[in-house]
């Protein structure tokens, strides 16, 4: 099967998370998910799998994902964003969908395409754009942390740092 240059986070540990996106134009959004998984040391792979331009590849990716040892898939797409839902149809793995902002409808089309799944085939759908990509990865981390105490400690520390940053925020009126 031909895929567009998969990128493994490392040559050794097998990827636990697949990050896929419909186009390289989704990268600036989806790199937020990459950054989070990298920060938490979770092995991942990242690649373009287009539902519409690479349908056979998408079917093969979804069909093989669980058997290859992946624990979750983060799928981002924009416009007629069918990739997350079709992957969810092809695998029992949890699929985390990220609506990528689109040129004409600002990602509202992406959001509705991803979130309105039929009963029985869920996609956990996140916010449009960067926050959604980062939160999808954080949700994967939270799920893995349920059975990984070291990862749970890392997640607690991440949240504590975030709280401190918020507490240290100063408004111009008080500066
Ligand atoms: C979707 O179409 C992709 O996920 C992307 O968000 C959008 C536009 O793709 P390009 O035309 O920029 O490749 O399939």
TrEMBL record:
Keywords: Isomerase, Lyase, Purine biosynthesis. InterPro entries: PurE_ClassI, PurE_dom, PurE_prokaryotes. Its EC number is 5.4.99.18. It catalyses: 5-carboxyamino-1-(5-phospho-D-ribosyl)imidazole + H(+) = 5-amino-1-(5-phospho-D-ribosyl)imidazole-4-carboxylate. HAMAP family: PurE_classI. NCBIfam families: purE. This is N5-carboxyaminoimidazole ribonucleotide mutase. It comes from Pigmentiphaga aceris. The gene is purE.
